[in-house]
Description:
Strand content: 35-45%
Helix content: under 10%
Low-confidence stretches: 1-35
Mean pLDDT: 92
Number of domains: 3
Oligomer: single chain
Largest sheet: 12 strands, parallel, barrel
Structural class: mainly beta
Radius of gyration: 26 Å
Number of helices: 6
Shape: globular
Strand order of the largest sheet: 8-10-15-18-25-28-31-29-26-19-16-11
Amino acid sequence: MTTFNFQLKSKQIPAFSKFAVLLSIALFSVSSVQLTAQTMVNSLQALKPFLKQNNVQVKMKPGVYSITAEDVKKGLFSDETIIKNTSKVLLLFEGNNSTYDFTGVTINVDTKVLQAFGNFQIHELQIIGNNNVLKNLTLADVGSVHDAPTRRATNIVMDGSHNKIEGFHVTTKGSFPYGYGDAFGKGGKSVIPHRKHSACLVRGESNHLKNSKFIHRSYGHCIFMQGANNPIIEGCEVEGEVRKTDDMLAETSGPAFDVDFMTVWGYKLPKGYMLSTGEAGIRAYDGGETVIDGKNYRRGTSNVTVLNCTIKYMRTGVTIAHATGKKYVEGCVAKGCENGFSLGSGDVVNCKADVTYGPAYASTYESDKGYNADITLIPSEEPYYNGSGAVAYIGGSGHTISLQGSSQGVDQGLQIKVGGDKKNIRLLHGNLPNQNDFKGFDFELHNLTTYPVYLSDKSSGVSGASKGEITDLGTDNTIQYIKK
């Protein structure tokens, strides 16, 4: 509360004027109280009118609230987004300059809701206003992991500008097929038609996702960005799950069995790999749509910052190679992911990763340039199942890469690869040649682990030093072996 201190002297101010000043102060104080007063609501229907208003402070009464398919049939939740009118939104935040406090609140969404609107994509919560704060909500999909949306679904969508979501706890369920990762398709071409369900889509201008936890049990991305400028992902935790391809191949019924395990990559699912049942932990796309101040934009994602996040058991930890502008990742940890950090270009500072199921870092394209990475390798918490055999895969040029920390997987035959064959499960038998067999040239590598470095015949001009033994099949490489 602001305190005003005025000294009024009767000889200087006439009585009437003194009264006028005091009245003005009183009215201003009442107005200020009204602007900052918090409104308590005790139901979702009581909350909804405030989602359209500006300059409100709303607190929801702690408790458990539910949204069911029956509620949809009654017309209680039917908002449409203003991007092409192809999405239905359960809770649409349209106002500006407001704060919504959900401390102690759980909203359970029945997974049957994902089919209740018919052929629409479903957004459970979406912000299209500006300068709003939403905090401390537990948002949970309740039902079967196989209750897929009719089309696709997302728990949270952030549009507008300068919005913040903080302290959320989100559980994502309901997709098809679930349990195989992207082995049978992910977009466009597919062997098994899929209906994805992602957790959080960040778009808009300068939106901020902070200190939130995501339990991801769905085929889809966890946190991803489209049409976002200056997004910040900070202090978030993502937990997916992984599954051996051997266990998938052991199924005697189900969608994968029905197609004889023939993957979208053109060959039968191979043994010996671990796949995430979801997609990316944190991902950026080079195209997408967003709405800011009621206007639709189609654009890429730029100037991404990711700070102090932990990603477990996802297809990738932080993959923002498709973003443009400044890309900065600091203090993040990738555990049990198929791939740790892929930026194309940009800075990875003081980050950690294990190499249990895949490399801590892999180049996205041969054109990757200027990737500056400081990655500490951490011990595995589980048995190694790294089908590609890679600690890191480095292609492109102009990098400065430092790997330090644990060398626990040396006895598993893992190595740091420069160029050549990635041996990624998606790139076998000549599949997707534009994503494999890269040249790696004119960069610095500082390997402070005892993992061996394999310089393929596609390598050249690699400098630096390595505590691990070096196999050099390339040309003009000057990296030095540091003997113990």
